[in-house]
Specification:
This protein is an alpha+beta fold. The protein folds into three domains: 77 residues; 93 residues, no CATH class; 223 residues, PPM-type phosphatase domain (Phosphatase 2c, domain 1). The chain is built from ten helices and 16 strands. Strands 1-2-3-4-6-5 form a six-stranded antiparallel beta sheet, covered by helices on one side. Strands 7-16-15-12-13 form a five-stranded antiparallel beta sheet. Helix 5 crosses helix 6 and helix 7 packs across helix 9.
């Protein structure tokens, strides 16, 4: 008999043996972190009996031990979270399983296992173990291969829920048994727009940005402004972007990832490595947004004519061994726009009418395309600076629309 879920229950992501092993590793990392934190109280500079150079060296060593302890704690946290992670399995009758198996078989697909899971935020995930039949009648079209995207469309109609293939899913089904994952389509669709201007004395911009799409229905926008301009600033901000992406993909929490990057830059002892970091993390299923700023410029959220300005007062990465990134939370609605800027845009506005009027300017914009809106903001900044580009400028605009909304149909 094929596997199907009879009752709604909690299922662990990994088997019990592996879960216990991970929890053991997590405890070991936590104990190791405690060892690095167990040290004598720091002596003040006045009470220090050695040379000033030795005192500074000991202080730097103490700070590095503290950073290492924090990193070990984060590793412990990640392992514990993975070990404890569970999904809710929805009940499925044998009758429903047989119906699905028959429908897929008519399309040239042989089904072995079928699981329907529910994530913590409520969105669904479908797991199918299947293969392409050697002799089949293709329902999708008169083609030689069965595309996984077509299977997603078929499942959407059969289950009455809009599904899409997982991010790293293969393109086509094979004659061998494989497990394929399909996720419920997020509630929101994002469109992005960008506009950039390079400092007039340089050939490359010191600003870098990234749109990182996670497998859990999240879109993370990262903007970094390297100190100064030119190739050196470009390399610094590019490195910050790459490290942030890698740590987030590995499962680190955003605040912990930023602390690790800051610690690496601060321990180098080179002040010219400083870069700002601006992160916008959006849950596409709920519209909830998390904004994290480290020395970054203001962010604006446009809702009709109203504009919400998000500002923070913090130092860039690499200034101090420990930092306190400023975190803000908002929830997007259908038709909202998020505008992210680098410092060069605000510096240009300061040469003219000033940045305080920017919310009013953004609120009056009627452009529906994020790309057009980004271009207009950049053009306005250049007008205020009379065409002079004294610093690199970058404008990122994100438009959020519900998939069932009219706007969604317009921008497909």
């Amino acid at each position: 008999m094929k596997n199907y879920v009879k009752d709604t229950n909690q299922v662990a992501v990994i088997p019990e043996y592996g879960r216990q092993r991970l929890l053991g590793y997590a405890e070991s990392f936590r104990d190791l972190a405690d060892l690095f934190e167990e040290e004598e109280p720091e002596e003040t500079a006045a009470a220090w009996t050695g040379s000033r150079q030795d005192y500074l060296w000991q202080r730097r060593l103490r700070e590095n031990r503290g950073l290492l302890a924090e990193h070990l704690k984060e590793m412990s946290h990640i392992m514990a979270e993975v070990a404890k992670r569970t999904y809710t399995c929805r009940s499925m009758s044998e009758r429903k399983y047989r119906q699905m198996s028959k429908l897929l078989k008519e399309s040239g697909i042989v089904l072995k296992d079928f699981f329907e899971l529910e994530h913590e935020d409520g969105h669904r995930e479908i797991s199918l173990t299947m293969r392409a039949a050697s002799e089949r009648r293709a329902r999708f079209c008169e083609q030689e291969s069965i595309f996984v995207g077509d299977v997603a469309d078929f499942l959407s109609a059969a289950l009455n829920v809009r599904l899409q293939a997982a991010k790293n899913a293969p393109l086509c089904l094979t004659p061998e048994w494989n497990t394929y994952y399909f996720l419920e389509e997020p509630k929101f669709r994002l469109l992005t727009g960008t506009a950039k201007a390079v400092r007039e004395t340089e050939t490359v911009s010191g600003d870098n940005y990234s749109f990182y799409e996670g497998e859990d229905g999240r879109m993370t926008v990262i903007l970094s402004d390297g100190m100064g301009s030119g190739e050196k600033a470009c390399r610094d901000s590019e490195r910050v972007i790459e490290l942030t992406e890698r740590l987030l993909e590995a499962g680190f929490r955003k605040e912990a990832a930023i602390q690790m990057i800051n610690g690496a830059l601060a321990s180098s002892g080179q002040e010219e490595n400083m870069s700002t970091l601006d992160v916008c993390d959006i849950n596409l299923y709920t519209g909830e947004c998390e904004f994290i700023k480290v020395g970054a410029a203001c962010t604006y959220i446009k809702r009709g004519r109203l504009v919400d300005r998000l500002s923070a007062q913090s130092f860039p990465l690499g200034v101090f061994g420990q930092l306190e990134p400023e975190v803000m939370y908002r929830t997007l609605e259908n038709g909202d726009y998020v505008v992210m800027l680098s410092d060069g845009v605000l510096d240009a506005l300061a040469q003219g009418i000033g940045e305080d009027v920017l919310p009013e300017i953004i609120g009056r914009m009627d452009e529906s395309s994020p790309n057009e809106m980004a271009g207009r903001i950049l053009t306005y900044a250049l007008t205020q600076s009379k065409g002079q580009i004294r610093d690199d400028m970058t404008v990122l605009v994100l438009g959020a629309w519900e998939r069932d909304g009219a706007e969604d149909e317009t921008y497909l």
